[in-house]
Write a structure and sequence with these properties.
- The protein has 209 residues and is α/β, with parallel strands linked by helices.
- The chain has a domain at 11-39 and 99-208: Rossmann fold, CATH 3.40.50.300.
- Helix content is 43%, strand content 20%.
- The chain has eight helices and nine strands.
- Strands 2-7-1-8-9 form a five-stranded parallel sheet, sandwiched between helices. A four-stranded mixed sheet has the order 4-3-6-5.
- Strand 5 and strand 6 form a beta hairpin.
- Helix 1 (22-32) crosses helix 7.
- The radius of gyration is 18 Å and the shape is globular.
- The protein starts with 10 loop residues before the first strand and ends with a helix.
- The model has no long low-confidence stretch (mean pLDDT 94).
- Bound molecules: guanosine-5'-monophosphate.
């Protein structure tokens, strides 16, 4: 870090139903925050237009995914919309140890597993839509999905929202800029936690020497 005090990284999880804003909010955070990396998941779903392998996801087939699970290379995994998704373990452990923070766009099932694996390191934020009508409007406006998929995502949205109370922070995404600011504040405060500033004892010893 810029102040030279050694620190442990944190794992910032943003969850919301599809269209809830987590992807755009995450992107905005990362533009201004060089210490916030992105956890790139494995998925068996096919790439959408504009998605790049290795950047948005590691796109793999069923066999490769199952091999990753079997070999313990995923720190969490779940099935969402009939496809498999999972988080590679090695980048998570490296980031924590090197004092870098990682952003996760994963669902409630993944958040639960990640918290079980690394309870002290997860900072979880749930992003709620202001209304279900607005959520549907946003899903249609982004034009990524056909009608049937939008209908399916709306029915899954309620199931995702039902897990809001498993998250440490909750934001109602009425205004994009305000929501980004709120997540930035959470991140700033969590970074200052004494337990994450692992080099403080050394720093203070220097102060008092
Ligand atoms: P999409 O296919 O729209 O990119 O993602 C569908 C859902 O899967 C989203 O709710 C997203 O947060 C979730 N997801 C993406 N990657 C992972 C992952 O590695 N693990 C889990 N548990 N969920 C994921």
């Amino acid at each position: 870090m810029s102040d030279g005090i050694a620190r442990r990284g944190l794992l910032l999880v943003l969850s919301s139903p599809s269209g809830g804003g987590k992807t755009s909010i995450g992107r905005a955070l990362r533009v201004t925050d060089p210490n916030l990396g992105l956890s790139v998941s494995l998925t068996t779903r096919p790439p959408r237009e504009g998605e790049t392998d290795g950047k948005d996801y590691h796109f793999v087939d069923e066999a490769a995914f199952l091999a990753a699970v079997r070999e313990g290379r995923l720190i969490e995994h779940a099935e969402v919309f009939g496809a498999r998704y999972g988080t590679p373990r090695a980048p998570v452990e490296a980031a924590l140890a090197e004092g870098r923070d990682l952003l996760f766009d994963i669902d409630w099932q993944g958040t639960r597993q990640l918290r079980e694996a690394l309870p002290e390191d997860v900072v979880s934020v749930f992003i709620l839509p202001p209304s279900m009508a607005e959520l549907e409007r946003r899903l249609r406006a982004r034009r990524l999905d056909d009608d049937a998929t939008v209908t399916r995502r709306m029915s899954r949205a309620a199931a995702e929202i039902a897990h809001w109370d498993e998250y440490g922070y909750v934001i109602v995404n009425r205004d994009f800029d305000l929501s980004v600011g709120a997540v930035r504040s959470i991140l700033a405060a969590e970074r200052l936690k004494r337990s994450r500033q692992t080099g403080l004892a050394h720093f203070v010893a220097g102060l008092l020497a």
